[in-house]
Design brief:
By secondary structure, the protein is α+β, with helices and mostly antiparallel strands. It is about 35% helix and about 20% strand. It has 3 domains: about 190 residues, Heat Shock Protein 90; about 110 residues, Ribosomal Protein S5, domain 2 (2-Layer Sandwich), CATH 3.30.230.10; about 250 residues, no CATH class. The strands form 6 sheets. Strands 1, 2, 3, 4, 5, 6, 7, 8 and 9 form a 9-stranded mixed beta sheet that branches. The relative contact order is 0.07.
């Protein structure tokens, strides 16, 4: 009986637990604190709301003081029209505002604020004090607020024109939020960034921002009619001098109606991250889709691995903008926004391409030799002087190639080459740089002492003269299979592409140590088979098969060794080997570059034979060197299909000569040669791709990352040459 009673109780409890919970009306203070945490997410949110209120009050000066990143104190002072005494009692109540009175007013709203939530939210998460004076009053008033209501009647006080609002002890009653915002430096930098963005748009307003107790402001701008001057005072001269004005508009009601004007960085600007300042109807917002579209344009149009600076102000009819889509008004929704993005993207791309193509360089007249191998200046005018300008003659010893993308700056411009049908001759920058290439400089840190020692060896062995040459050289063209011709100042150099790429890859491997991205092989590759291929390629007498058993034993031993080291290879070098002895993944040493996979067998054999697995430093150095040799830009396996290399693609064809009537029974078999066009086409494509990689991947990465060792000055990697009427005379090593 007792057991039955217990079962009845359990069933009853189970039924009770499945009943729906009661719905309760939250206390108003709880509702307000929840809403406040959504509107005021961090100190910069409060600063943004207060500064926008100052702008709505037609202020000409806004001063911000911050203590402990805004958690201890935020003080915003302006010289606007102030707040009327009669409005002070309801100033910090929720949904009290002077910006609108009906919902329809949202369709034509022009002010920054409109909900009447910001000040109320601050009073629920901080201590707010307001001091204000309006025009014509003899004195001002000061009042404190808590939870949306006044703590006391407004007190008369001395005041200067405008309003000052202090928010103290922000998030004092939200311990979890306050703990997540302990990094005051991070929050203060966000506030400085906010004020900087506002300062370059509202150029008629003076802005300042400083830490509490600091004598010097971190942001200081004065009212100016020039936006360039505002950017110069806030962001610095290096940005201001590299900006281009841009405009776009559309007034077709069937598609889009907008007007955009702005400033964007040119091809000379270099930065590590994008800075995009966007205002829509004078409201500072973020528009991820437009930002991504412009990033794509910059990455695909310009060769430098840098991020742009973009300022844009877009004006649309107020009824085409929905400003009420985000709690902090950080985002807006636009009518026909896809069309607007497309038009702006097109204008920016055209501006960038034209700015890169219309640069004017001094004309360099080169007298061609009698052999006719050089195109004359009369037939090919690559650098015309501007209309109406006088052409300056440049001494031969001071002629400098200044633009690697200019046809006159390329070696091929001075050679008569036979066009190939499969090679496109489009010089468009968009076509040439059709893929987005992001070249990042990895963090130069290492977890292991041995890796740091190897990096220190590189840093302590830099040749300063070569470093300057590498950083500021201009690519001219490939001189032969190994050497590329480049120019630095008034000197020409022959640079060994294999040595340069090998050293660059070696340094990149060390700096990306344990932080590689992975490159997945399309099919697993057996280590044993790869090693056997490499051993057979090294065999001088492939017909002699006595040592085949020995080769197989070597392959098996190396396979087992690499399987034992698979965990370390995967963790540090992203070389993934499965338990069956198959190679599955390789590291990405240089972004957007894929090595010659025909060299995988040699690489695997090198890992098995040449690595000292007992000494940590020697081990890592050998593996890095093996990866560098594998990723280096060696000449392709197929012979160069130009010059004497063309003979490799000829094949003999035998046929009967039926026209030889005098010797009908004799040996009248004729031999002819024809070109293997399929193999030739493959070779031409491979070699063309290699030169493209040298120009557009190796040399840009080399300028950014390579630290040339002193040995390169004497081992023939760089050979300085002199040019005289198209002929090169070797002066000697660097």
């Amino acid at each position: 009986m007792e057991e039955e009673a217990m079962e009845v109780v359990e069933v009853h409890e189970e039924r009770i637990s499945k009943e729906p919970p009661n719905i309760r009306r939250l206390d108003e203070s709880v509702v307000n604190r929840i809403a406040a945490g959504e509107v005021i997410q961090r100190p910069v949110s409060a600063v943004k709301e207060l500064v926008e209120n100052s702008l709505d009050a037609h202020s000409s000066s806004v001063n911000v003081v911050v203590k402990d990143g805004g958690l201890k104190l935020i003080q915003v002072s302006d010289d606007g029209h102030g707040i009327r005494y009669e409005d002070l009692p309801i100033l910090c109540e929720r949904h009290t505002t002077s910006k609108l009175s009906t919902f329809e007013d949202l369709q034509s709203i022009k002010s920054m604020g409109f909900r009447g939530e910001a000040l109320a939210s601050m009073t629920y998460v901080g201590h707010v004090t307001v001091t204000t004076i309006t025009k014509g009053q003899l004195h001002g008033y000061r009042v404190s607020y808590k939870d949306g209501v006044m703590e006391h009647e407004p007190k008369a006080c001395a005041a200067v024109k405008g309003t000052q609002i202090m928010v103290e002890n922000l998030f004092y009653n939200m311990s979890a939020r306050r703990k997540t915002l302990q990094n005051s430096a991070d929050d203060y930098s966000k506030i400085v960034d906010l004020l900087s963005r506002l300062a370059i748009h509202h150029t008629h307003v003076s802005f300042s921002c400083r830490k509490f107790g600091a004598a010097r402001a971190d942001v200081h701008s004065v009212g100016t009619p020039s936006r360039i001057d505002a950017i110069r005072s806030v962001y610095g001269v290096s940005i201001a001098q590299n900006l281009m004005k841009i405009e776009a508009s559309d007034d077709d009601p069937s598609s889009s109606v907008f007007k955009m004007d702005g400033l964007i960085s040119n091809f000379n600007f270099v930065a590590k991250k994008i800075t995009m300042v966007l205002f829509i109807n004078d409201r500072l917002v973020e528009w991820t889709a437009l930002k991504r579209a412009l990033e794509i344009v910059y990455s695909a149009t310009l060769p430098k691995a840098s991020k742009p600076f973009i300022y844009m102000s877009i004006v649309l009819p107020p009824e085409h903008v929905d400003v009420n889509v985000h709690p902090t008004k950080r985002e807006v929704s636009l009518l026909n926004q896809e069309i607007i993005i497309e038009k702006i993207q097109s204008v920016v791309e055209s501006k960038l391409r034209n700015s890169n193509d219309t640069r004017t360089f001094q004309e360099q007249t080169i007298e061609p030799p009698s052999s006719g191998q050089v195109v004359s200046q009369k037939d090919s005018d690559f650098s015309p002087s501007p209309s109406g300008s006088r052409q300056l003659k440049v001494p031969v010893h001071k002629m400098v190639r200044t633009d690697s993308s200019d046809p006159a700056g390329r070696l091929h411009a001075y050679m008569q080459t036979k066009p190939h049908n499969h090679v496109e001759g489009n010089s468009s920058l968009t076509t040439v740089r059709s893929s987005v290439r992001q070249r990042r400089n990895p963090k130069e840190t290492a977890d292991l002492t041995s890796i740091q020692e190897l990096i220190d060896e590189i840093d302590s062995n830099i040749h300063s003269g070569l470093l300057d040459t590498v950083r500021h050289c201009t690519y001219v063209g490939m001189a032969d299979d190994i050497f590329a011709l480049l120019q630095h100042g008034t000197h020409l150099y022959l640079a060994n592409v294999v040595n340069l790429s090998k050293e660059l890859m070696y340094q990149q491997v060390l700096r990306r140590f344990a932080h590689f991205n992975a490159m997945q092989l399309s099919n697993p590759a057996s280590l044993k088979e790869l090693i056997m291929l490499a051993l057979k390629e090294e065999d001088l007498d492939p017909v002699y098969e006595e040592n085949d058993d020995l080769k197989e034993k070597i392959a098996e031993m190396n396979t087992e060794l690499l399987k034992q080291k698979a965990e370390m290879l995967e963790e540090y070098f992203c070389i993934h080997i499965d338990t069956h002895g198959n190679l599955l993944r390789l590291p990405v040493v240089l972004d957007q570059y894929t090595p010659d996979m025909d060299r995988v067998p040699e690489f695997v054999l090198c890992l098995g034979n040449d690595v000292d697995w007992e000494n940590e430093k020697n081990c890592f150095q050998a593996i890095s060197a093996a990866l560098a040799n594998f990723y280096a830009m060696h000449p392709p396996m197929l012979p160069n299909p130009t010059g004497d290399g063309l003979k490799f693609y000829e094949k003999k064809r035998h046929f009967q000569n039926h026209k030889d009537k005098e010797n009908p029974t004799g040996d009248n078999v004729m031999t002819d040669t024809e070109i293997d066009h399929e193999l030739l086409s493959e070779a031409e494509t491979t070699w063309a791709q290699r030169e493209w990689s040298v120009q557009h991947i190796l040399f840009p990465a080399m300028r950014l990352f390579l630290k040339p060792p002193t040995s390169m000055a004497t081992n023939g990697t760089f050979v300085r040459v002199s040019s005289l009427f198209g002929k090169y005379f070797i002066d000697g090593c660097y």
